[in-house]
Amino acid sequence: MRTLRFAIGCAVTLSAALGQTPDAGRQRYETRCARCHGGDAAGGESGPNILAQITTRNDADLAAFLRQERPASGMPAFDLPAAELSELVQFLRTLATPIPRNATAAAVRRRVQTADGQTLEGQVQNEGMLDLQLRTDDKRIRLLRKAGDRYRVVTSQADWPTYHGDPGGNRYTSLRQIDKTNVARLAPRWVFPLPGVSIIENTPVVVDGIMYVSSANECFALDAGSGRMIWHYQRQRTKGLAGNAALGFNRGVATAGDRIFMLTDSAHMIALNRFNGELLWETEMADWRVNYNGTSAPLVVGNLVISGIAGGDEGVRGFVAAFEQSSGKEVWRFWTVPKPGEPGSETWPAKALEHPSGATWMTGTYDAQLDTIYWPVGNPGPDFYGDDRPGDNLYTDSIVALEARSGKLKWYYQFTPHDIHDWDAQEPPVLVDTTWQGQPRKLLLQANRNGFFYVFDRTSGKLLLAKPFLKKLNWASGIGNDGKPILNNLPENADGTVYVCPGFQGGTNWFSTSFNPATGLYYFQALERCNLFQKRKMEWEAGKGYMGGAARPAPGETFQKSLRAINIETGEIVWDVPQVSGQATASAGVLSTASGLVFFGENSGAFMAVDAASGAPLWQFPTNQTWKASPMTYMFDNKQYVAIAAGQDIVAFGLPE
Asked: 604 FRET partner, CA 20 to 30 A, in 45, 219, 286, 437?
């Protein structure tokens, strides 16, 4: 948004509106805007390139933006008569006319010799002093590096092909190049800023040397070794959305073959050609006008692409759906809240089933041997007002185990029956094959938002262990033999509030976790914080939230964020790394490595690495950003990188040459 402010600033300091002529729009632009943004809007002496901002707004949005006063930025309203403003908008539109995808007249072709004696020829996508991107005649991208008067072909030796790097959801890597002996030398190798993005809640994906990064209705393909852009897909944001997608959240993409899959803000699944960003198909998952929206990274399973939906704080009815990768045709759909008369509906009154929530906005995990998907389900609605929905409210706050080919329910476990604190189960369900208490087991691990750590046999759904990981936890005294929490009776204060630990942000949340088989420890970010909850009866409305109350910190109390390591066999906390408490609580996940490191985003904005066995700090880099993302790693051109979204940038760290 800030880029167009330069145009407004130029406008108010230069001459008054010109008389209307056939070329009036051009004259107004040249008089008011060109000094800052250049005659082609591609950037000038004091203003940036605004072409992308023009193409992503329709005419009415551009006109409204120019009319709006922004005192905080020192920008008065751009007060022009409607006809004159329309002329300027139409001229801006001519500057940003998209180039047709089949246009080849301006394409630059080049033939290069490689260091191994081969010849490559193709269309130049982008280049720098030492790197070159060629789209060869087989429609694929070749990434090249200067080697004297020739080029080396480079690519990735170890990819990060899914949101968590592995379908099982465990952010653990076998890469060992960065280890405890050299991590102190780690430094940024490249930075890619996402223009016009307020904050990135995304994990990059890397396949065959190309990194894919997304934000709302945008996808960027980058050279994973330099961060240089290869292509950029973008469409207009949806006006009138409710929910997190309206804020620009998009957590990532999925890949299969020559395709990229992602959700739009309006809850459409789309497929793009991963070599040029061309839209291949688009399928509406749900109607955004009744509060559905899309924020999650899809999951690829066989010939299917699977995703959930956002809108749980706005009263949608949640589901998980599978689509054919080739066509976008829906194959199956599992509803997370049953209809009246279906199994589980007895845990709801009929009226509450109209807007029950149970959204599915976090990526699930997959066991290929069992052909089972494990999907986390969100809170019931309204979030804080449960008086009108007595009962357990299945399958909210649950893990549902689904047959991958059909979506049929195999088993479920509900962590927090009748939730009134927004403790959804969207924390990663991590799949681990290991020895547990002397027996080989196929486990599912989750540190849940309600403050308990859980271990399941994921074949049967049997609960093996449930133990609190918080010091401040007052809502339950434990988990009973029946698998349900043993509730404490919490008193209501005179003002109608109830003091509950943990608070609505939970003891942890959606960001990534990791199990390291060498240490036997499970790493996650914990939040020690309590809230005063107050409920309020409300009716559902399209385009509005459906919280049913509010939660706030108790006066005089602060919070403590910690990186914790748990012994999965006992639930005991082995070590704890307290972090700096500031004004905001960060949402950064973790990544552990076979070389004995744990990377994480520290609450004050540092990117850190600690010893996986002891938690001893080994390295940090201050980003001065509030984290909203989790780290990943890959090997490119035989060099290991660790990348994370920080603020508006993707930052890739590596060892010096």
From this structure: 219
